[in-house]
Amino acid sequence: MATRRTLPLLRHLTSSPSRFHPTRSVTYMPRPGDGASRTVTLIPGDGVGPLVTDAVEQVFAAMHAPVAFEKYDCDGDMKAVPQEVMDSIKRNKVCLKGGLMTPMSGGISSLNLHLRKELDLFASLVNCQNFPELPTRHENVDIVVIRENTEGEYAGLEHEVVPGVVGSLKVITKFCSERIAKYAFEYAHLNNRKMVTAVHKANIIKLADGLLLESCREVASKYPSIKYNEIIVDSCCMQLVSKPEQFDVMVTPNLYGNLVASTAAGIAGDTGVMPGGNVGSDYAIFEQRASAGNVGKIEWVEQKKANPVALLLSSAMMLRHLRFPLFADRLETAVERVILEGKYRTKDLGGNGTTQQIVDAVIANVD
């Protein structure tokens, strides 16, 4: 789904013309029919969602990307994802979406969870990597967090035993543990990653988290060239904020993955620049890694200053998924150039730029 961004190459490309020596490009040989336009379901979502999805539409149009969007309105106050939206995603196989808010009360469940369960999007992937010229406390951060997406604490199995006493079940199965472990090691193998770290709390939650570790160990034995280790989740958080460069690919159960991905994104720059998505055997949904607070920033919506970078990079991941790798390269390079130049940055990145200014700058750099 994703590859490492070629930032050292980008530094070379942005150097003075006298120092630039073009290298021979590698030809991409498509299969017959690969150039046909693909239809993708688009859900603008809530809050800043319409702003950032519109940014993607503008950039794709400027690039003449072979993608047609089938757009559906859907918001977090709905009790369920409309059937026409589900039918569209199942027909197109791929979806790009803005954030969908989950109400804290009112008995409405998360539409994000509904989509993941209905489509069996068992793997969430977030790529957390430093950008040159974007100030961060740590350098050389390049972490991919792969999170099991369908069970654990997010299974939603809660009930009130008696008034004032609530039970919440954490469900872990061998089947789901094995397939997320396989996905993590397969990802590492295909993307030339060197290490997979399993995050757990098996010292306390011995059976449930122990089952995940058992599955990871079994899969790791089939990939001898990839280093495998394990870390307790609380120690993991401490290590992330003190020495994040030690991590490569991380595989986690559902709740821990949410926390670890947010922490890693914050360390690497901001959730506003970290791409991500959810994938299963049949379908994929690409979205940005953003907290609910960022999705619903009213002032960003009113001032039209939402940061579109994360969703633009997520859409580049989508282009690779659709087998349009050179379009993905062009888009990623354009976004990285805009960040490197530093002229236009939104408020979350220390600037005062608008969404449209970022879009215009990306379009200007896209070729």
Summarize the structure.
With 367 residues, the chain is of the alpha/beta class.
Could you characterize the architecture of this molecule?
Belongs to the isocitrate and isopropylmalate dehydrogenases family. Keywords: Magnesium, Manganese, Metal-binding, Mitochondrion, NAD, Oxidoreductase, Transit peptide, Tricarboxylic acid cycle. Residues 39-362 form the Isopropylmalate dehydrogenase-like domain. Its main location: mitochondrion. With 367 residues, the chain is an alpha/beta fold. It has 2 domains: 1-12 and 35-123 and 273-367, Isopropylmalate Dehydrogenase (3-Layer(aba) Sandwich), CATH 3.40.718; 137-268, Isopropylmalate Dehydrogenase, CATH 3.40.718.10. Helix content is 40%, strand content 17%. The chain contains 13 helices and 12 strands. The chain has helices at 7-13, 49-63, 83-92, 111-118, 174-190, 208-220, 233-242, 254-268, 292-295, 298-303, 309-321, 325-341, 355-365; strands spanning 38-43, 67-71, 94-97, 123-129, 142-148, 158-162, 165-168, 195-200, 227-232, 249-252, 275-279, 284-288. The chain has a 10-stranded mixed sheet with strand order 2-1-3-12-11-4-5-10-8-9, with helices on both faces. A two-stranded antiparallel ribbon has the order 6-7. It is globular. It starts with 6 loop residues before the first helix and ends with a helix.
Key phrases:
globular; ten-stranded mixed beta sheet; Isopropylmalate Dehydrogenase; two-stranded antiparallel ribbon; alpha/beta; 367 residues; 13 helices; Isopropylmalate dehydrogenase-like domain-containing protein; transit peptide; 40% helix; IsoPropMal-DH-like_dom
